[in-house]
Amino acid sequence: MKHIAIMLPQNYRGGSLRTSKNIAKSIFLGAQKNNFPVEVCFSYVKGGNYDVQNDFADLLEMGITVRETEWKTISRDKVSSIISTAHLQKSVLTEPKYIMPTDGASDFYDCDLWVIISDRTTFPVFPIKKYLIVIYDYIQRYVPEIFETTEVWNIQERSYFITTRSASGIFVTTPNTRDDMISYCGVNKDKIHLINMDFTPLLNRVENTQKTIQKPYFLWPTNTTQHKNHKLTLQGLEKYFIKSDALDCYIIGTNTHYFLSNQKNGGGNFLSKQSYISQIREIINASPILKTKIHILGEVTDAVYMQMISNAVFLLHSCLYDNGTFCVLDAAYMGRPSLSAKYPAMEYMNQYFKLNLRFFNPHDPNTLAQQLQFMQEEAKNIVLPSKRSFKKYSWQANADSLFKLIIPYLE
To answer: Are domains 2-198+394-410 and 217-391 of this chain identical in fold?
Structure first.
């Protein structure tokens, strides 16, 4: 019996949590399909404000165990001592500090393989177990302002790179990220596997979970990080809202309630977030038309999210860069088209899932305003894939191919 741990080193929510759980479920099901005896556990960060019984109900129902984890910082000398005491294979220790996952029990020593979701580790991972890493993007290459200073950037990114380069294998879901792995992170291409993108709808059907919004609107799912391109998007919205028949905009997403003027504090993983949130708040407050036409709901439940998509005229995706965002898939599944910023991952996703996205230049507010008007007038005429067509992209459909890539790392 082999043991595999799927590990989140950050308290991810939204699409990142969703895809991480799908990887765990795919591995679990893939092992069954290949008659390979495996136990799978899922590690989430302590203090991440998760509701275990609700947030991880799908994992628990399958028989995947869930472990609360604290990632502790340890010195190089301590790492060397542990390796020597446990008679482990010696590693070259280049950094003064490392991090290791602890769960108050086995600390994942009982696992034969770790699958770490993302390289976002505060220090390099303690080299005690064979691990794979799933990399979604290198946002900092394209949007360096997500770090407060160049110094913070260099220190943090060094940890990311060491964690990634020390992995036995690397999984990516887009060709652009694969290319970044080679040219930016400096990873040997033979270690990289391009895996299938998966999409499984959050809900099979949508029930009315709140009072229906009376006026037509479009939905803007986002969060409070800089790569979501709020400043330019708000400029484009102002130009669009000038028209008397312009649709209202509803904003939802993690921490977006901090954009409201009555919220005193911001939050997040990066030091610059506090000031950035204040800047966005000031832009909204300084514009009477934005204050009138934008409605911020903050983070909502999956049921409310899907209901709001199903009632929207269309969905707006504003990002400067990432690995592709699932909200456009949710919208297409619910029969709603999307207007998306144009960048490589979204173009790949559009082609991969046949979404018929409408694109705008994320650096030009004028084209955004023009495309918003187009969507208002033509959204109902955009042809979308059928619900049935999404079944071939589910985590269940990808389970066999994903697990076959993992088998060599269990030997």
So the answer is: yes
- Looking at domain 217-391, does it have CATH number 3.40.50.2000? yes
Q: Rounded to whole angstroms, how far apart are CA atoms 210 and 57?
A: 23
Rounded CA gap, 126 and 86, in Å? 14
Q: Percent helix, strand, coil in the chain (nearest 5)?
A: 45, 20, 40
* Side chain identity at residue 171, one-letter code: F
Q: Please tell me the distance from the alpha carbon of residue 42 to that of residue 174, in angstroms, as a whole number.
A: 24
* Cα distance between residue 396 and residue 393, in whole Å: 8
| Phi-psi map region of 253: left, alpha, beta (phi>0 left; psi -120 to 50 alpha) | left
pLDDT tens-digit profile of 187-246? Answer: 999 999 999 999 988 775 565 655 668 899 999 999 998 889 999 999 999 999 999 899
Residue 312, Cβ density class (10 Å: 0-12 exposed, 13-18 middle, ≥19 buried): buried
At 116, the amino acid letter reads I
Fold for the domain defined by 2-198+394-410: Rossmann fold (3.40.50)
The residues spanned by each domain of the chain are: 2-198+394-410, 217-391
Distance CA 190, CA 299 (A): 40
Tens-digit pLDDT profile for residues 167-179: 999 999 999 999 9
